[in-house]
Amino acid sequence: MTYDCSLVYVPQKEEEVADYDWANFPPSKVDSGRGSFTIIDECTGIDGKLITRNAFIHGQIDGLVFAENVTIEKTGRVRGVIFCRNLTVLGNVRANIVCDSIFVRSGGVLSAMLKYKNLKIEPGGSVGGKFERRLVIEGKSQPVTEQDDAAHRSARFR
Amino acid sequence: MVEKVAEQDSEGTIFIGAGVEFKGDMTVPGCASVDGKFEGVLKAKSLIVGQSGNVSGQISVETAEVRGTVGDHLTVQSKLIVRSTGSISGAVSYSKIMVEEGGELAGTIEKIAQSAADAKVVALKTGAE
């Protein structure tokens, strides 16, 4: 099974990401339990969009990271926007982030407009910016309006 | 919690028990432990906010451990620890931070260099000086 990366609908609003149906996230469907992952190594830079299931970023990304699980390793540097489910930061991030869980490890530097459900910061982690906690209602995000919800569902795989 | 305060009896401490509400300015040379409600200006060496504690206003301390709620302005010169039941909102400045899973951090978060932190916190006047 493959998917057309250009057809993956990238949520435009944080509500859409928080309510995102990760089971239907195209890269996760392709992966189908094999545990595939992507490594952006130290000598790699991406200027644009990275859409994948599991990403380990040792290099640099300027742009969008859209993935289920993202780990920004010690040498990793991300500037831009991160939409994900679980984010781990050991490197340097300056981004607009919407995620479910974020874990800033020792040595991680985070400067962000951050919307999260669960936050954990290890001693030695450094954070700054504007933080906002999303409401967790029975595993779902804060309610979106019916209109937003309908628009989101129809546009998901546009 | 009382025992924790008592451990640091070398410097003056204050304990605001659950159900106690305090409004006003306070300078504490040692530890301020709050299980009740505090509103106002607080300068202390260390701040311990219990699970039932609620602190709001202008708070500047060297170290803070939060299990309850802290609002408005919080400046922590050294280490800020947010436990799993802790919640901090507003303008937060810190030098070192640790947040346990479940802890909440909301508002404007700023890391300050140790030297800048020293300048930001007004020196405490103790009787010994």
| 3D shape of chain B | globular
Provide the gyration radius of chain A in Å. Answer: 15 Å
Q: What is the 3D shape of chain A?
A: globular
Please tell me the total number of domains of chain A. 1
Say how many strands of chain B there are.
10
Largest pleated sheet of chain B? 10 strands, parallel
Report low-confidence residues of chain B grouped into runs of 5 or more: none
Number of helices of chain B: 2
Taking the alpha carbons of the first and last residues of chain B, their distance comes to 29 Å
Count of domain modules of chain B: 1
Order of helices and strands of chain B: HEEEEEEEEEEH
How many strands appear in the DSSP assignment of chain A?
Answer: 9
Series of H and E elements of chain A: HHEEEEEEEEEH
What does the model show?
- The complex is a heterodimer of chains A (158) and B (129).
- Helix content of chain A is 13%, strand content 46%.
- Chain A has one domain.
- The radius of gyration of chain A is 15 Å and the shape is globular.
- Chain A has 158 residues and is mainly beta.
- Chain A has three helices and nine strands, in the order H-H-E-E-E-E-E-E-E-E-E-H.
- Chain B has one domain (2-120).
- Chain B has two helices and ten strands, in the order αββββββββββα.
- Chain B has helices spanning 2-7, 114-120, and strands at residues 14-16, 21-34, 37-49, 54-66, 69-70, 73-76, 79-82, 87-94, 96-99, 104-111.
- Chain B starts with a helix and ends in a 9-residue tail after the last helix.
- The chains are: A mainly beta (158), B mainly beta (129).
- At the A-B interface, strand 8 and strand 9 of A face strand 9 and strand 10 of B.
- Strand 9 of chain A pairs antiparallel with strand 10 of chain B.
